[in-house]
Design goal:
2 copies of one chain form a homodimer.
Chain A lengths: L1 E8 L3 H21 L1 E9 L5 E3 L6 H11 L10 H7 L4 E4 L11 H10 L3 E4 L3 H16 L4 E2 L2 H4 L4 H8 L5 E7 L2 H11 L4 H10 L8 H4 L2 H15 L9 E2 L7 H9 L2 E12 L2 E12 L12 E7 L3 E8 L3 H18 L2
Parallel strand pairs in A: 1-2, 1-4, 4-5, 5-6, 8-10
Antiparallel strand pairs in A: 2-3, 7-9, 7-11, 9-10, 11-12
Chain lengths: 340, 340
């Protein structure tokens, strides 16, 4: 039996759900791929770092986090040190997003690829800020580089593009990809006040303590930049996206749109204009009959238009943390499938 | 340079659009795969059969069909004879659907697989009536068997399942997959009379001369049977699907639904009940806010619910014949990719 060793950088809710899924599915993985997946390292910023080259006991690690809030025998090694020195086959980059730079996740990934290690990133920063460079570095070093979770959790948008858009040229991308703003706009429409909508979103766990990055459209800008980089080879960054958030949208505007049979949604998109790619994030009024008007709360949609396949949309309905974990898991299965 | 030889059975509008796409993309195919795709045979029922083991001149064949309505040097060999005797690598099954049996397409495919030939089918009959047997026969003979076009033209529903639903168990499928009924219901809603809607659909080319198979739900039953067979290993047939068409739906019912903020749609679905798969086709009232209510005219949707990935929907927007051709083309590219 073969072994595939992971080094996991960052172990928040999605990481822990991923760890549980790995434990649960291990018998099936072994049966299917004749390979045992072991976790050689888990790095956290405040809960300690575990390194065990023969494989961390994930169930025990989970119990410690649940019971003590940290690893009992955790060390203080940092993510970069682990990326550069530990013996692993796949780096799993789950550190928190730094939306204005993509760092230090980009450096972690570069370190892994330079060592010839495969990389899975659930962090969209590197895909939004440095995709072309990382893609080329992966190719030069014969490494796999997957990032399914970065835009739509477990829904297979990049996988679809890799496997299904054969010889198609993507000419337009359009999406609703930010839960926080989609939720707030939906609540405004129901007559809930802006501040109350934010509080409710925080209570339900999908609105950040400081929602500015969502409300101002930065999160959507990072996601559309990532999509444009991968699907259109745009070489863009979130800073290049023509960005307008929902901070200027009033309850009166939402109500007025509703009366006219429309819904205000925060759209993001990428187009080709005079041969150049151009990205945007902006609030737009959508007619009730449009599929985009049906995307509510934490659901999301991406429409991809190509020269040969026409327009196809992918909708993810009300994802939970388990779907994010599944996205990382499915990338892991793709590494198993394609690295042998 | 390698060669991949196709034998194409059936060469109607979709087949001809596929032929044009092959010609147009040949330089790119050769560059990418170092393989020339040649068509060794084209069989038609009424326009003659071409067999040229060094490769048919597709542009010339198209000109003959356009100018004379048939091949000038066509012979009378039949599909089964070609499937069994011509030297080819991939059988491309594009004969018309026989919805109550899947024949003779099933026999054509069996003949090819028994000879160790790969198969692409745009005919849904074999997938709806005999998928399990054909899948196993393909596996026994080390053959690839693709059928992307059978349910949603060029939209990648089976490809998605193959590549992206890794270790997921499909628990429910739900779709709107019949254009004719979706178009008729939409027209009824606008106040157009049933017969006028049918005439308009015929004029626009997507309603059959005899629309009974669509109106009575047989086409949707074949599509949901195909989806259930592939995604749920259901081993079902169109005859097993609990089927109700739209022949009983009146303009008054559609209007009444509209007044209550709903739209009547012909849904098809597959569920698991007491451990058994169960398929249905039936008209249903859908709330205006639902994504299914936004599917109009020839657009279609499939929602797939799994244990790990949650619910993901795929929507195809207003496909034309070029999208069907692209579905067959993308299967051809997958054969190139996966047979080397």
């Amino acid at each position: 039996m073969k072994t595939l060793k992971l080094a996991i950088l960052g172990y928040g809710n999605a990481g822990r759900a991923y760890g549980k899924l790995l434990v649960e599915k291990m018998p099936e993985i072994i049966k299917k791929h004749n390979t045992e997946v072991k976790v050689a390292a888990i790095v956290t910023k405040t809960k300690g770092t575990l390194i065990e080259e023969n494989g961390i006991d994930l169930a025990k690690a989970e119990t410690e986090l649940a019971d003590f809030g940290k690893f009992r025998d955790g060390t203080s090694q940092g993510a970069m040190e682990v990326a550069e020195t530990v013996d692993y086959d796949v780096l799993v980059e789950l550190t928190p997003l730094e939306i204005f730079s993509g760092q230090p996740a980009i450096s972690h990934i570069q370190a892994a690829l330079k060592r010839g290690k495969h990389v899975i990133s659930a962090n969209k920063g590197p895909i939004a800020w440095a995709f072309r460079e990382l893609r080329d570095l992966a190719a030069e070093n014969g490494c796999l580089f997957y990032y399914e979770t970065t835009v739509m959790d477990g829904a297979p948008v990049f996988n679809l593009a890799d496997e299904a858009l054969l010889m198609c040229k993507v000419t337009e991308i359009r999406g609703i990809l930010n839960s926080t703003t989609n939720f707030i706009l939906g609540e405004l429409e129901k007559g809930v006040a802006y501040e109350d909508a934010i509080e409710e979103g925080k209570r339900r766990g999908f609105v950040e303590a400081d929602p500015a990055m969502d409300v101002e459209g930065w999160d959507a800008a990072a996601k559309i930049a990532a999509l444009m980089n991968v699907l259109m080879d745009a070489g863009t960054t979130p800073a290049d996206i023509d960005r307008k958030g929902i901070e200027g949208i009033t309850a009166a505007q939402v109500e007025s749109a509703r009366e006219r049979g429309k819904a205000i949604k925060l759209l993001c998109g990428g187009i080709i204009e005079n041969g150049k790619t151009k990205g945007y994030v902006k609030p737009e009024e959508i007619g009730r009959g449009d599929i985009f008007a049906s995307i509510e709360g934490t659901s999301s949609v991406v429409s991809i238009t190509t020269d040969l396949m026409g327009t196809v949309s992918i909708v993810e309905h009300g994802p939970e943390i388990e779907q994010t974990a599944y996205g990382i898991f499915s990338d892991t299965m793709r590494v198993l499938k394609n690295s042998c």
